[in-house]
Amino acid sequence: MIQSVYIHIPFCQHICHYCDFTKIFYDEQMATDYLDALANEINTQVLGEKNPVKTIFIGGGTPTALTTSQLRTLLSFIEKKFDVYNCEEYTIEANPGDFDEEKAKLLKDFGINRVSLGVQVFDDVMLKELGRAHRVKDVYKTVELLQKYGITNISLDLIYSLPHQTAEHFGRTVTEALSFGLPHYSAYSLQIEPKTIFYNRHKKGQLHRPQQEEEVSMYEILKQKMKQSGLNQYEISNFAKSGYESKHNLTYWNNDYYWGFGAGASGYLPGKRTLNIRPIPAYIKQAKEDGKPLLKVESIGLKERIEEELFLGLRKLEGINKVDFQTKFGFSHEVLFKDEIAHLVQKGWLIEDKETLHLSEHGVLFGNDVFEYFLLEDEDLEAIALTKK
After folding, report:
1. Alpha-carbon span 195 to 207, nearest angstrom
2. Is the model's pTM score more than 0.85?
3. CATH numbers and ranges of domains, the chain
4. What is residue 334's three-state secondary structure?
């Protein structure tokens, strides 16, 4: 069963200096055309109405950059197409300051039960340097407004290792974020991506990044403060009160199937991964024509499935369940990775117990290095074939 749905809305009122997601400045007519194209894509790929799914995630871009009327059109269509009132988690991404009373009520009326707020940092000067439109006071107003309309499952998203940021400064941001007492927080290290303003500044030597030691200190502060506040780290960058872990993101980390709709969206279906056209005008044209705005379709064979099972599963602090792996693939993980696991355990990066395989606290800092040990060669599949003879 395809468990989840991701829907991409690419419009933004402001373009952040670090963002490389598919996005464009908001234009009312283009947004209207985009929603028509999006509906045709979804109708083409998903037959019938009230389709059962476990999670729905509307991301961007900034979905709440849409007008109230456009947002109602979008949510009405999703409500018709998917069984939103029986799905476990229905999330929309938003920026602080994007809501008025009418939009907040609209979300509640259409069954959205989780909001992910892009806060990034509690510092007005840094927010301006990031190209963000909101200010700290908007975070307080938005959280209060959402809670007024009964939306209490709110996540605050933070970014650290920002230009000119110190560990002490980031610690103050985490402390202020935790003062809201919310059930979920995410925090990601700033990545300098091509085709962004920050990338151009970086190439010119004009972007002052904290040293690696400072970044590690920020991450340690993050983990410590979250733990002190009773939040469990369940993934490398995510923390939650018990029962409030992001079910949608767990779809990705558990390597389960999901639809991806909208410009630049990716989907993971049995045997294949899909990627949609990124340029918004080209997406609109193709999606309106035949409902199949695909840039490419990549076949996912056994090799790729196993690699992704390890890469994604080890992002979770609980790691890989050995029995689940064997049930899913029909053979033990040791057939392919016995020596690699022994080496990583010896280095102190990996912990293997009776039931699971997971990163150590130290290994979390070297996640990408750990993942490289689980890349497979074609001849590795011969070992699998031998186990099935």
Report:
1. 15
2. yes
3. 4-253 (3.20.20.70), 319-387 (1.10.10)
4. helix
